[in-house]
Specification:
The chain is of the alpha+beta class. The chain is 17% helix and 28% strand. The strands form two sheets. It has a six-stranded antiparallel beta sheet with strand order 6-7-4-1-5-8. The protein has a two-stranded antiparallel ribbon with strand order 2-3.
């Protein structure tokens, strides 16, 4: 479904939030597996890592998404740091239910996922 929210350019100085299931947080760090793209729903679909842009979302909003919010933590990532990693793109991709919804597009091999893990800061641990 198409969103009525305008697509905006996300400044490199901003942050995005990623919901992280408790099994992907260890010793206050986000494991590399938390940065794996979902499989495409259909052939040719452009898939990316779903994140929420801080301009339109709160940490609490990010934590509350998903089937088991109590098992979610939240990581913050600097958009500028993401864009420095192997040509990753951070793109505003609003949905009907979320003006903050954005995507991290680009190749996410092991090396890139390690860099994303290092760039992530856990801002909320699971309950």
């Amino acid at each position: 479904m198409t969103s009525n929210f305008p697509i905006e350019e996300i400044p490199s100085s901003d942050n995005v939030f990623r919901r992280v299931y408790r099994g992907y947080i260890k010793n206050g760090r986000v494991k590399v597996n938390a940065f794996t793209d979902p499989p495409p729903k259909f052939e040719g679909e452009r898939v990316g890592l779903s994140v929420l842009w801080e301009k339109h979302a709160t940490i609490a909003t990010c934590k509350s998404t998903g089937k088991e919010p109590e098992n979610n933590g939240v990581a913050a990532l600097s958009v500028g740091k993401i864009r420095e990693i192997d040509a990753l793109q951070v793109v505003h991709d609003p949905k009907v239910e979320s003006q903050a919804h954005s995507q991290i597009y680009g190749r996410k091999d092991e090396e890139v996922r390690v860099q994303l893990s290092r760039a992530a800061t856990v801002v909320v641990n699971p309950d």
